[in-house]
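Morning - flavin-adenine dinucleotide inputs below, output right after.
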Amino acid sequence: MTPRILVAGGGIAGLTAAIALHRRGFAVDVVEQAPAFGAVGAGIGIQANAMAVLRALDIPLPADDVVPIGEFHMVDPKGRRLMGGDPREMQADPPSMNVHRADLHRALLDAAEGIPLAAGRAVSGLTVEADGVEVRFDDGSRGRWDLVIGADGAHSAVRRALLGDDGARLRYAGQTCWRFALEAPDLVPDLSIEQWTPGKRAGVMPLARGRIYVYLVESAPPGTPGPGTDRPEVLRAHFRGAHPLVDAILDRLDPGVPIHHGDLGEAEAIHFGRGRVVLIGDAAHAMTPNMGQGAGTAIEDAGELAVLMTERGGDVAALAEALDERRRARVAYISRMAWRLGRMAHWTHPVAVALRNLLLRLTPQSVMNRQTVAMWAPGIELAERIRRTAGEV
Ligand SMILES: Cc1cc2nc3c(=O)[nH]c(=O)nc-3n(C[C@H](O)[C@H](O)[C@H](O)COP(=O)(O)OP(=O)(O)OC[C@H]3O[C@@H](n4cnc5c(N)ncnc54)[C@H](O)[C@@H]3O)c2cc1C
C-alpha cells in the first residue's frame, strides 16, 4: 500500500520534498501556516550542489529569474580583498545561482502543481501511533497519515511535538541580520561583495532584472533591535560610512521596501526525527547562513528522502533514522563551518583581526576552490542517485 504523507510547511524544504515524492507516485498533502503560498523574502544563493539536486528532480528555475553567482570578494573596512573567488571557474553544471526568494518559491509552486496544498493551516501537535501519526491543526481539525515530514522551519512545531521544548531549542549566534531586495539597475554590481568591519558585515549580491540583494549583520545581545528598527533610517544609522556601494544603496532605500529582520542562530542539536516522523531543512538542522547552504542542504534532504522512499518501496519504518545516517555528517560539517566563519567575520580585537586578514590574504585561491568543490561533491553525487532511482517505486 502506498503510504499517505503529510508535509508540514510549504517552504523550500517542504515543497521540494512534496514535489520529489509526488513525482515518484506517493500520495502527498502539504499544509502551510501562512494564509497564502505567497511571495516572500529577499535574495538567496543556491549553490551548485543544490542546483544539481533541483535539476535531477526536474524542478527548473526560469532563466530570467536567476543570475549565475560570479566573482565575490570579502573585503576589509578599506575595501581591500581578503578572500573570494568565482564559482564559475569551478565549471559546475548547473552553476550556482542567485535568485529572489519569491521567484524561487514561485518556481517550486509551479512544479508542485497537482499536489493538494492547504494554506492558512498550521500543525499544532501530533501523536505517533504504531501504524500512523495523528496530526492536530490550529483550526481544531485532525487527520491521520502514515508519514509526517516536518519541514516547518527553525521554530518547527513538529519538532517540538516530537522532542519537547528542550529538543527544539536554538542557539543564538550573537548576531542580528537585516535583509532586503531593491530594484536599482544602475547600482547592480558586477561582483558580490561582503565587507567585514569589527562587529559588523554588509553584503551585496546582484539579482536578476536589475535588483540587488543586501544583507546587513551586526553583533548584538539577543533581541536587541526591538520593534521599529527595520526602518531605512535605522539601517543608515547603523551601517552607513563603510562601503560606498552600501551607502549608495541605503540612500535609495525608501520605507516601501520590505526589510526582513531576525536574529541568527542554529539548532542546538541536529535531529532528523523518529521513525515515521521525519524532520528536514531548518526543522532538522537550522544553521547560521554564513556558508550560504541552509536552503541548499534542505533541498538535499528532500532529494535524499525521495531516494530513500524509493529504495525502501515506501516502507516508512525507521525512515528518520535512515535519513539521519545519510545526512548527519554532511549537515554537521556545514553548520560547524558556518558558525566558525560567522564568528571570525565579527572579530573585534585588532591583533586577531590583523592576523586573520593576513592569513586570509595568504591562502592560495586553489585551496579555497578545492574546498568549495569538495563541499559541492556530495550534492552532485546525490543528484546522480536521484536520477538512477527515478521512477522505481
Ligand atoms: C540571513 C539569511 C541568509 C540566508 N542565505 C542563504 C543562502 O544564500 N543560501 C542558502 O542555501 N540558504 C540561506 N539561508 C538559509 C535558508 O533561508 C534556510 O535554510 C531555508 O529557508 C530553510 O528552508 P525550510 O523550508 O527548511 O524552512 P523555512 O524556509 O523556514 O520554511 C518553513 C515553512 O513552514 C511554515 N510553517 C512554520 N510552522 C508551521 C506549522 N506549524 N504548520 C505548517 N506550516 C508551518 C512556514 O510558514 C514556512 O513556509 C539564509 C538564511 C538567513 C537567515
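Note: The pocket of flavin-adenine dinucleotide is lined by residues 8-14, 31-34, 44-45, 122-123, 151-153, 157, 177, 179, 215, 262, 281-283, 289, 292-296, 298 (CB under 6 Å).

O.
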